[in-house]
């Protein structure tokens, strides 16, 4: 129902009066089970939009922007919706749109009562907006995820070369296959519940202060933050078994398993796409026959999609950009930059047997923040790449939520998440501090699947003897992990297989991710338009007419669903009747055959 774009301007954008004359000649369509359109009378429900720059409400702001250096602006500061023409006006006028923005900023404000009346209408508009945006994604925007950024490619290549050289120098021997761990099959002993309890911090690293921009001022190019000058810095990396602090703390606190947080995250989150990694494992038995397991950091650089390359790059550069040492604070640990935390993994089996592991988790802290209360809260900086910045923030996927939960909960249960939204062109959008989303995994029991994977891995490793081992995860078999043992009697070169897997092509997911309608970004505040809504209608809202049309749309949609269900039931009934007739004929044939056999 959009206006053809090849018409002259005076015909393309008709006045409301001429629209009404044309609409009066049309009769509202009756229900057609084959085709339903959400807009029956475009003049009563949504106005054809002209483009944001045609809107007189925003003309002054556009002129103001053009007077500045546009090449320094972020892409979202050009105007909302970017270069893409929105197809309709909103059902809300400017006054109601401003109230909706106030409601989103403060859901407990008095305006909440007003928007309960309009909820169905707003939901209906958002449904149409999402449908338009999903089509726009397929036609125009999805290739943004495939863009190769030269400086990130160079960064990843340097990181990959470092990782490969490290693996060659430390794990270049011959290995023999020892065990395959299948996470699709439950262990021989059925596990009821697995619980991971935080005990205490055994030793702390040097304290860093995290300072993040509280507000993004899109009108001031001087406040722009960009991540286009990152250079890979090779870390000081040694095998985990050589960590003297870890060995000392392990002996003092009766630790069964020492593990790096990066390895724990990879073992628990097998759903992570394109996940290729090697995890070194050392098993030590002392003179008292006490067995201690050391699970080193995951080595997983070099097998990335374009999206994962950007994420890896930002993960490193965000810490370099926003983290600095906190002065006048005593450093509790002078030997390294890690925190060492004691945890207890408790397992209750169906046969009543309880099992537990004392676990030491080594992690590298990001720092503390003093900008929000409570002050001095441990904080993790995690990037979130936005591929639709002209429209808002994309929703957090289930896979991302698991990653956030693992990255915060197992550093310290009180760790806060600083989610830094960065546009796909590496310009900062906004920072969001949150903790509630990750806490939901603990409260609803979804954590059990991931904790059981950790328990299954540790239980298998405790059955092994003293020696050097390697866990290898092949992304082609996501829920399997192969365990290899270093062998003096020969075997095969594990590195050759790892490098072959590393060179395998990695595909990018182009599935559209919806915009989060509950999160405001700077462009929404600047243009006074709520997320997932079209620009305000210049005419007053006729709530009665719009309600009638929305009700009619919902009634027709329900009628279509009922019609389809009736058709489905009819087909099932016909199929059942045919099967019944076939069974009856088969019985009759069987009886006839038996009679003929008896006669013979």
From TrEMBL:
InterPro entries: ICE2_C. GO terms for biological process: positive regulation of transcription by RNA polymerase III; snRNA transcription by RNA polymerase II; snRNA transcription by RNA polymerase III. GO terms for cellular component: transcription elongation factor complex. Keywords: Receptor. Signal peptide: none annotated. Pfam families: NARG2_C. Coiled coil: none annotated. Residues 329-536 form the Little elongation complex subunit 2 C-terminal domain. Residues 1-24 are annotated as: Disordered. Residues 11-24 have a biased composition (Polar residues). This is NMDA receptor-regulated protein 2. It comes from Aphis craccivora. The lineage of its organism: Eukaryota, Metazoa, Ecdysozoa, Arthropoda, Hexapoda.
């Amino acid at each position: 129902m959009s206006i053809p774009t090849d018409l002259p301007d005076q015909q393309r954008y008709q006045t409301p009066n001429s629209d009404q004359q044309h609409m009066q000649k049309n009769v509202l369509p009756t229900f057609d089970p084959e085709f339903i359109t959400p807009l029956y009378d475009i003049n009563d429900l949504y106005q054809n939009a002209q483009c944001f720059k045609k809107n007189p409400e925003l003309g002054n702001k556009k002129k103001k922007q053009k007077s500045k250096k546009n090449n320094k602006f972020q892409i979202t500061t050009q105007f909302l919706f970017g270069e893409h023409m929105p197809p309709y006006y909103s059902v809300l006028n400017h006054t109601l749109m401003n109230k909706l923005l106030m409601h989103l900023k403060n859901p407990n404000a008095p305006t909440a009562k007003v928007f309960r009346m309009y909820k169905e209408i707003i939901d209906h508009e958002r449904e149409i907006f999402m449908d338009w945006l999903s089509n726009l994604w397929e036609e125009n925007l999805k290739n943004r995820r495939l863009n190769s950024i030269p400086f990130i490619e160079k960064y990843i290549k340097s990181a990959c070369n470092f990782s490969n050289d490290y693996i060659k120098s430390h794990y270049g021997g011959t290995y023999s296959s020892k065990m395959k761990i299948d996470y699709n099959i439950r262990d021989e002993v059925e596990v009821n519940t697995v619980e991971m309890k935080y005990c205490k911090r055994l030793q702390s690293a040097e304290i860093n202060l995290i300072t993040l921009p509280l507000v993004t001022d899109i009108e001031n190019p001087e406040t722009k933050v960009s991540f286009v000058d990152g250079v890979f810095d090779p870390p000081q990396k040694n095998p985990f078994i050589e960590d003297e602090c870890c060995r000392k703390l392990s002996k003092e606190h009766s630790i069964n398993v020492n593990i790096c947080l990066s390895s724990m995250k990879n073992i628990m989150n097998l759903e992570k796409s394109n996940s290729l990694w090697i995890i070194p494992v050392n098993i030590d038995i002392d003179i008292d026959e006490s067995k201690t397991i050391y699970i080193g950091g995951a080595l997983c650089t070099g097998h990335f999609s374009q999206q994962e390359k950007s994420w890896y790059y930002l993960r490193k550069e965000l810490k370099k950009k926003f983290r600095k040492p906190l002065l006048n604070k005593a450093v509790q640990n002078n030997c390294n930059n890690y925190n060492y935390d004691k945890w207890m993994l408790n397992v209750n089996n169906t046969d009543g047997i309880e099992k537990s592991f004392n676990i030491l988790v080594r992690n590298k802290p990001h720092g503390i923040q003093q900008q929000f209360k409570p002050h001095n809260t441990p904080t993790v900086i995690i990037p979130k790449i936005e591929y639709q910045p002209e429209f808002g923030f994309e929703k957090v996927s289930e896979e991302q939520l698991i990653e956030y939960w693992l990255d915060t909960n197992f550093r310290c249960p009180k760790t806060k998440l600083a989610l830094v939204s960065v546009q796909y062109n590496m310009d900062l959008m906004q920072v969001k501090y949150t903790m509630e989303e990750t806490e939901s995994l603990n409260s609803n029991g979804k954590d059990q699947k991931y904790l059981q994977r950790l328990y299954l891995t540790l239980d298998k490793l405790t059955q092994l003897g003293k020696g050097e081992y390697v866990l290898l995860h092949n992304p082609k078999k996501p829920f399997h992990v192969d365990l290899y043992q270093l062998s003096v009697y020969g075997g095969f070169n594990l590195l050759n297989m790892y490098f072959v897997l590393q060179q395998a092509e990695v595909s990018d997911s182009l599935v559209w991710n919806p915009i989060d309608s509950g999160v405001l970004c700077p462009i929404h505040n600047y243009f006074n338009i709520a997320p997932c809504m079209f620009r305000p209608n210049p005419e007053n809202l006729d709530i009665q007419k719009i309600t009638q049309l929305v009700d009619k749309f919902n009634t027709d949609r329900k009628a279509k669903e009922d019609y389809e269900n009736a058709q489905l039931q009819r087909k099932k009934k016909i199929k059942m009747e045919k099967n019944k007739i076939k069974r009856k004929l088969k019985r009759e044939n069987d009886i006839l055959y038996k009679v003929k056999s008896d006669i013979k």
